[in-house]
C-alpha cells in the first residue's frame, strides 16, 4: 500500500461531491485524526486504513477506493462511525463505495464477500420474503465457485460436517419459510433496486 | 405485559435454541409476545452493503406492519434491531419525505396508494409516525419491572458461574441510530447476570466486533477476531461467554473447535444466551433442550457448578 501511494496523486473532483449530494455525508469534514483506523478491528485484513479511504474519496481517487479490499472487508461494526469527532458516517461511506463498485462493474478483489451479499438477497427474493438459511448455504457454495477449491484444500469436509451437525441439532430447517402474502408488492421493492449492476 | 415480536429469519432456523429459550422464559415471566403477522426479512448486511433503498425499504415494511398493530415491538436479533432502528430514524427524520415517496412509488403500482408526500406535510400524514418503540430484547428484559419479576422467580441462583458479557456491535452502535445510552460500555447484561446470582467479570471486549457478517465468505478473518475474544475472556477469568445476539453466538460457538485446532490451543468456553441463563435460574425444564443445540457442550461446566443435574 505504501508503495502504491509513493507517487503523487492528482486530486479529482467527483466522488466526494457525489457522496455529499447523494447521501449527505461529507468526507471533506475529515481532519485525519485517525481515530477510525485506531478503533477498527479489521485493519489487519485491509489494504487501506479507514482514514485513508476517507481521504482518497475526498481526493476523488475512484480507482483506488472502488477496487480496494477495505470496503468489502469492513464488517459494518459501526465503531468508526460512532467515534468520528466530525460525525462522518464512515461505515455508510464503505456501503456507498461497495454499491458504486458493483454499479460501475469494477473488479472486486473480495468476490466471495460480494457474492455472499448478492446470494443473500437472491435467497430472500426467491423464498418470498424471509431468508431460507439452508438454501443460502447451497446457493453460496455453488455460486462462489468455492466448492472445487474447498474440495482441493480439504475444507469442504469441514463445511459438510458443520452442516450435518447443524441438521443433527435441529438447527438447519429444510422446510422453506413462510412467504409474504402480497408477494407482488414485496417484489416491487426489489424490482428497481439494482443490486446486480445494470 | 403484551408486546409485538419480530423474530427475524435466523430464529426460525439456526438460532432455534435462542427462539425456544425466549418463548420459554417469556411465558414464565407473563410476557405475551405477539409475533408480527406476515413479517419479512430486514435485509441485513447484504442489503445495506449493496443497495441503500432496499436497506431501508425492507425494514420499513415491517415497521408499518408493527405500527398497524400498535404495540411496542421487541427484537431479539441485533442486526434486525439495528436495521429497524435505521429505518425508523429515516422515516422520522428530515429525509423522510424523499424516502417515503420512493417507497410508495415502488409499491403504488400494485396497491393504488397515494404518492408524493411533500416535505411540508405535517408528521401526521407520514406513513410511519413513530408511535411505537423498537426494543432490543435485552433492554426489554432488563427493565426494572422485568428484573424484579425475574428476581421473585429465581429457583436456583447461578452461584459460582464466572462469565463475561459479550454485547456485540449493533445494539450499541451507532448511538444516533440505536439510542443506546452507554454504547462504549453497556452494563445491563452484567447487571442481569449478577441478579441471576452469577459473576460478570469486567473486560474491554464487550462490544468488539466478532465479524459475523464475514463468517461464510472470509472464515479466516473470523478466526483472528474470535480467537482474540476467547483470549481476553480467559484473561478476565471467565468460564463462559454470555451473549444477546444469535450471530455472535453462532460465530463464537460453532467454530470453537476449528479455532482450537488452528491456534494449537484447546479452548473450552461455552457461549450461552442470556435468555438461557434466565431459564436456568428460574428452573425452566426447557433448558436442557436449548443447550443441547449448542456446538460447545455447556453441560460439563454447568454440572461441575451444580447448576444442572
Question: Topology of this protein?
Answer:
The complex is a heterodimer of chains A (198) and B (309).
Chain A: H1 15-23, H2 35-39, H3 50-58, H4 62-66, H5 70-73, H6 79-83, H7 90-103, H8 111-126, H9 133-143, H10 146-153, H11 155-168, H12 183-191
Chain B: E1 2-5, H1 16-28, E2 32-35, H2 44-50, H3 52-69, E3 73-75, H4 78-91, H5 96-111, E4 134-136, H6 137-141, H7 144-153, E5 162-166, H8 175-178, H9 188-195, E6 199-200, H10 219-235, E7 240-243, H11 246-253, H12 256-263, E8 271-273, H13 274-282, H14 287-292, H15 299-304
Parallel strand pairs in B: 1-2, 1-3, 3-4, 5-6, 5-7, 7-8
Descriptive account of the structure:
The complex is a heterodimer of chains A (198) and B (309). Chain A has 198 residues and is an all-alpha fold. Helix content of chain A is 55%, strand content 0%. Chain A has twelve helices and no strands. Chain A has helices spanning 15-23, 35-39, 50-58, 62-66, 70-73, 79-83, 90-103, 111-126, 133-143, 146-153, 155-168, 183-191. The radius of gyration of chain A is 20 Å and the shape is globular. Chain B folds into two domains: 2-135, Glutathione S-transferase Yfyf (Class Pi), Chain A, domain 2, CATH 1.20.1050.140; 156-304, Rossmann fold (3-Layer(aba) Sandwich), CATH 3.40.50. Chain B has helices spanning 16-28, 44-50, 52-69, 78-91, 96-111, 137-141, 144-153, 175-178, 188-195, 219-235, 246-253, 256-263, 274-282, 287-292, 299-304; strands spanning 2-5, 32-35, 73-75, 134-136, 162-166, 199-200, 240-243, 271-273. In chain B, strands 2-1-3-4 form a four-stranded parallel sheet. Chain B has a four-stranded parallel sheet with strand order 6-5-7-8, with helices on both faces. In chain B, strand 1, helix 1 (16-28) and strand 2 form a beta-alpha-beta unit. In chain B, helix 3 packs across helix 4 (78-91). Classes of the chains: A mainly alpha (198), B alpha/beta (309).
Amino acid at each position: 500500500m505504501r508503495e502504491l501511494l509513493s507517487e503523487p496523486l492528482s486530486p479529482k473532483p467527483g466522488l466526494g461531491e457525489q457522496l455529499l449530494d447523494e447521501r449527505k455525508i461529507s468526507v471533506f469534514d475529515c481532519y485525519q485524526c485517525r481515530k477510525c483506523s485506531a478503533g477498527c478491528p479489521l485493519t489487519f485484513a485491509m489494504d487501506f486504513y479507514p482514514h485513508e479511504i476517507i481521504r482518497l474519496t475526498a481526493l476523488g481517487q475512484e480507482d483506488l477506493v472502488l477496487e480496494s479490499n477495505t470496503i468489502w472487508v469492513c464488517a459494518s461494526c459501526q465503531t468508526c462511525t460512532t467515534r468520528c469527532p466530525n460525525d462522518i458516517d464512515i461505515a455508510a461511506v464503505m456501503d456507498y463505495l461497495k454499491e458504486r463498485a458493483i454499479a460501475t462493474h469494477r473488479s472486486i478483489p473480495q468476490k466471495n464477500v460480494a457474492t455472499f451479499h448478492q446470494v443473500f438477497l437472491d435467497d430472500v427474493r426467491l423464498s418470498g420474503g424471509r431468508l431460507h438459511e439452508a438454501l443460502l448455504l447451497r446457493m453460496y457454495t455453488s455460486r462462489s465457485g468455492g466448492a472445487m477449491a474447498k474440495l482441493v484444500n480439504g475444507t469442504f469436509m469441514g463445511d459438510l460436517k458443520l452442516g450435518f451437525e447443524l441438521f443433527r441439532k435441529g438447527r438447519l430447517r429444510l422446510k422453506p419459510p413462510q412467504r409474504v402474502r402480497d408477494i407482488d408488492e414485496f417484489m416491487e421493492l426489489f424490482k428497481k433496486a439494482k443490486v446486480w449492476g445494470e | 405485559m403484551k408486546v409485538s415480536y419480530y423474530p427475524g429469519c435466523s430464529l426460525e432456523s439456526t438460532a432455534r435454541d435462542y427462539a425456544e429459550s425466549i418463548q420459554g422464559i417469556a411465558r414464565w415471566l407473563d410476557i405475551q409476545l405477539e409475533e408480527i403477522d406476515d413479517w419479512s426479512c430486514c435485509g441485513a448486511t447484504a442489503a445495506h452493503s449493496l443497495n441503500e433503498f432496499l436497506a431501508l425499504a425492507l425494514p420499513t415494511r415491517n415497521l408499518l406492519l408493527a405500527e398497524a398493530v400498535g404495540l411496542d415491538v421487541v427484537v431479539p436479533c441485533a442486526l434486525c434491531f439495528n436495521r429497524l432502528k435505521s429505518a425508523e430514524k429515516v422515516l422520522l427524520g428530515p429525509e423522510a419525505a424523499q424516502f417515503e415517496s420512493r417507497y410508495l412509488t415502488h409499491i403504488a403500482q400494485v396497491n393504488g396508494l397515494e404518492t408524493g408526500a411533500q416535505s411540508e406535510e405535517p408528521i401526521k400524514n407520514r406513513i410511519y409516525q413513530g408511535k411505537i418503540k423498537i426494543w432490543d430484547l435485552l433492554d426489554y428484559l432488563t427493565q426494572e419491572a422485568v428484573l424484579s419479576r425475574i428476581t421473585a422467580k429465581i429457583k436456583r441462583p447461578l452461584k459460582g458461574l464466572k462469565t463475561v458479557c459479550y454485547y456485540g456491535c449493533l445494539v450499541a452502535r451507532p448511538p444516533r441510530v440505536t439510542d443506546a445510552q452507554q454504547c462504549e460500555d453497556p452494563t445491563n447484561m452484567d447487571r442481569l447476570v449478577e441478579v441471576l446470582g452469577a459473576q460478570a467479570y469486567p473486560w474491554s471486549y464487550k462490544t468488539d466486533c466478532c465479524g459475523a457478517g464475514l463468517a461464510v465468505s472470509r472464515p479466516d478473518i473470523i478466526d483472528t477476531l474470535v480467537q482474540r475474544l476467547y483470549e481476553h475472556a480467559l484473561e478476565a477469568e471467565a468460564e463462559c461467554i454470555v451473549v444477546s445476539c444469535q450471530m455472535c453466538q453462532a460465530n463464537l460457538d460453532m467454530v470453537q473447535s476449528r479455532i482450537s485446532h488452528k491456534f494449537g490451543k484447546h479452548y473450552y468456553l461455552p457461549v450461552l444466551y442470556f435468555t438461557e441463563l434466565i431459564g436456568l435460574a428460574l428452573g425452566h425444564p426447557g433448558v436442557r433442550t436449548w443447550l443441547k443445540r449448542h456446538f460447545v457442550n455447556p453441560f460439563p461446566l454447568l454440572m461441575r457448578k451444580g447448576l444442572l443435574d
